[in-house]
Write a structure and sequence with these properties.
Blueprint: H1 2-22, H2 26-36, H3 44-56, H4 58-66, H5 78-93, H6 99-113, H7 118-133, H8 135-141
Helix pairs in contact: 1-2, 1-3, 1-5, 2-3, 4-5, 5-6, 5-7, 6-7, 7-8
């Protein structure tokens, strides 16, 4: 299942990037991905939740990230911005997923899709966000 979740995140980043850049309707983007991808290789429900959830909660996610970044979110590379928003969404909406897993998955996505050293930036920002969004879990891990 975790392999399917990882694949869902990877597809969600591509879909969210498309949404950010083209402003296309999220439902249309999801439908396109469902037609183009082998649905047996990823958790389509989780993919749909992520792609619908991030735009729906955008203000809350951006606010949660604002204190953790060193610049305006609009100045962050679009791929890394999508990854950070997805990570923040999972930190807030999925407390059953350990924050370290959320961060590690985001770092892997940044290594795959982001700029050369983008994964370091994603790691640092989401680590700060995890401490703010999940203070008890983060404190227990330190």
């Amino acid at each position: 299942m975790s392999r399917q979740r990882s694949r869902s995140r990877s597809l969600a980043i591509q879909a969210l990037y498309q949404w950010q850049m083209a402003g296309q309707d999220v439902g249309v983007i999801i439908q396109h991905f469902m037609l183009e991808q082998d649905v047996k290789k990823f958790d389509s429900d989780y993919f749909g939740e992520l792609v619908r959830g991030v735009p729906t909660r955008l203000d809350e996610l951006d606010k949660a990230l604002a204190d953790c970044i060193d610049r305006d979110l609009d100045a962050v590379d679009p791929v890394e911005r999508a990854i950070l928003r997805l990570g923040a969404y999972e930190l807030i909406e999925h407390p059953e997923i350990p924050y370290r897993v959320v961060i590690n998955e985001a770092v892997e996505l940044a290594k795959t899709f982001g700029a050369e050293k983008g994964h370091r930036y994603v790691n640092g920002v989401l680590d700060k966000a995890a401490r703010a969004l999940r203070p008890l879990e983060a404190a227990a891990r330190r």
